[in-house]
Amino acid sequence: MFFKLRKPIFLLLSIPAIALVYIFLRNLSGYSINYQVSSPCACYKCLTDSDPWFNYNISENEFNWWKRLQTESRSFGVYGTTVANFFKIFPRNPDVIQPKPDHCRTCAVVGNSGNLRRSHYGPLIDLHEVVIRMNTGITRGFEKDVGNKTTHRVMYPESAVAVDDNTHFVPFPFKIQDFEWLINASTTGFTGRSYMPVKSKIKTNKDLVMVVNPAFMKYVHEVWLGNKGRYPSTGFMALILALHICDEVNVFGYGADSDGNRSHYWEILTNKGLRTGVHPGSYEYNIIQQLDQQQKIKFYEGLTKKM
């Protein structure tokens, strides 16, 4: 498979009120990442887009696809009103490092796989300007293997953890309530219910909140995954996010551990029958390997089971 990021969709909710910023993908049939002769960054190679243009609206069709992920029953109009209220509290323009010809935006995407144990990747991970971690992935006690630097924490309400004042809080919303949760949990407190417990209060720097557009999920599902699985995993969406905000992307902590199990590096696995559920885990992993083979990213596999 040959990947062409000619018109990558970018991602983050921004102005106007129900808007999102994303670069429209003109050619859906296949895509590659192009490197320009006149380099736009100071990396050895740069992930670039030759001719982006921005669209500031989420369509009702995209909304209708998204609302089915967790059986959202409310309307497109309610979504718009909720997002308008969201922007009364959080910044309309995402805090993204802009490309410069004299600067290399390096990005480490750190998954939670047990293959990070005994990897000694920690110092290498911490050298990156941007370090993206997922959900409840912890660092304390595991610094030698996973590092301790976090600039962006990707999660959803049911997996949310507090972040410090210097870390970007990057929620992936799956339903309208996820926007409402962040509004309330960061102010007066959230009292609603979800399919599993959610925190009533969350500590985060409101100026560093970057909400990923619901249309981004649809784009990743259709273009990158060919509609396989019900929707992409958080880890895979975080990787594609990194391809759009960094010049150089290095990936750690994805895939099964050395025994072939889907474990987390901070826990001793008792249930060895875990699978990737609604996500096409094997297909996502194969794409990551192909991107590495094509030298679009560098994939540090860790202690994985060699097949």
TrEMBL record:
Disulfide bonds join 107-246. Keywords: Disulfide bond, Glycoprotein, Glycosyltransferase, Golgi apparatus, Lipid metabolism, Membrane, Secreted, Signal-anchor, Transferase, Transmembrane, Transmembrane helix. GO terms for cellular component: extracellular region; Golgi cisterna membrane. It is a single-pass type II membrane protein. One of its GO terms (molecular function) is beta-galactoside (CMP) alpha-2,3-sialyltransferase activity. It is an enzyme of class 2 (transferase). The keyword Metal-binding does not apply. One of its GO terms (biological process) is sialylation. It catalyses: a ganglioside GA1 + CMP-N-acetyl-beta-neuraminate = a ganglioside GM1b + CMP + H(+); a ganglioside GA1 (d18:1(4E)) + CMP-N-acetyl-beta-neuraminate = a ganglioside GM1b (d18:1(4E)) + CMP + H(+); a globoside GalGb4Cer + CMP-N-acetyl-beta-neuraminate = a globoside MSGG + CMP + H(+); a ganglioside GM1 (d18:1(4E)) + CMP-N-acetyl-beta-neuraminate = a ganglioside GD1a (d18:1(4E)) + CMP + H(+). Substrate binds at residues 70, 112, 135, 195, 231, 235, 255, 264, 279. Pathway: Protein modification; protein glycosylation; Glycolipid biosynthesis. Coiled coil: none annotated. It is found in: Golgi apparatus, Golgi stack membrane; Secreted. Pfam families: Glyco_transf_29. Its EC number is 2.4.3.2, 2.4.3.4. The keyword Nucleotide-binding does not apply. Its main location: Golgi. Homodimer; disulfide-linked. Homodimer formation occurs in the endoplasmic reticulum. PANTHER family: ALPHA-2,3-SIALYLTRANSFERASE ST3GAL I ISOFORM X1, CMP-N-ACETYLNEURAMINATE-BETA-GALACTOSAMIDE-ALPHA-2,3-SIALYLTRANSFERASE 1. Belongs to the glycosyltransferase 29 family. This is CMP-N-acetylneuraminate-beta-galactosamide-alpha-2,3-sialyltransferase 1. It comes from Oreochromis niloticus (Nile tilapia). The gene is LOC109200119.
